[in-house]
Amino acid sequence: MKVTAPAVVLAAFKNSGQICVASKRIYVHQSIYKAFLAEMVSFTKGLKVGNPLVADVDIGPIQNSMQYAKVQSFFADCKENGYRIAIDAHPRILNDSTGRKGYFITPTIIDNPPNRSKLVTEEQFGPIIPVQPWSEESEVIARTNDTNMGLGACIWSRDIEMAERIAVQLEVGSVYINSPLRPDWRVYFSGHKESGVGGERGLQGLLSYCNAQAVHIYK
Fold first, then answer.
1. 8-state DSSP, 168
2. Do the bridges between strand 101-105 and strand 91-95 make them parallel or antiparallel, or are there none, so unpaired?
3. For every one of its 219 residues, what pLDDT tens digit does the chain have, with 9 covering 90 and above?
4. Whole-model pTM above 0.85?
5. How far is Cα 58 from Cα 5, in angstroms, rounded to an integer?
6. Is the dihedral of CA 116, 122, 123, 124 positive or negative?
7. Does residue 7 contact residue 40 with C-beta atoms inside 8 Å?
């Protein structure tokens, strides 16, 4: 747990969550939910926010004002609805060590918001993440698939057989077991649903750059 929790946190907050394959929702089995959430919170509190060019900084700013405003809307919705914030944080514009301003947001974990909440149903593309408990495989698979997006997912478990069983039922282009999402150039990378049409990488991806030709001979 002390190894997995930090990996799960970084899968969500790396580059301030501004990565297409960043984790957008996290589901933790109810038997370890409280303990795992505590480990996530402990690790997240140690992340340093600031100028990403400084060696000891972990989390940089949001890229632009439009996306910053969008991420702010998730904080506002959580506050308005009284959701439990595992780490007390808020968006803010700060000066970094060089005196330049940036759209910095402290990585924030929301403890078990409702399934139909804005944070669970929409893509935030920023450092605020919902964490929810689950109990039955069929339930967590249905909740995972209940989205218009389907780029990728990661599953963490000692039970590889169970992880594989869940993986093939997820409506996503890529599934990573016991690893954050990290596409491999040797393997086809694509999305399902509104996460895109077509793909890249791997042999199938190379073929998309080729012009196919069919020759028909009739006798």
1. T
2. antiparallel
3. 999 999 999 999 999 999 999 999 999 999 999 999 999 999 999 999 888 888 899 999 999 999 999 999 999 999 999 999 988 655 555 555 555 678 889 899 999 999 999 999 999 999 999 999 999 999 999 999 999 999 999 999 999 999 999 999 999 999 999 999 888 999 999 999 999 888 999 999 999 889 989 999 999
4. yes
5. 16
6. negative
7. no
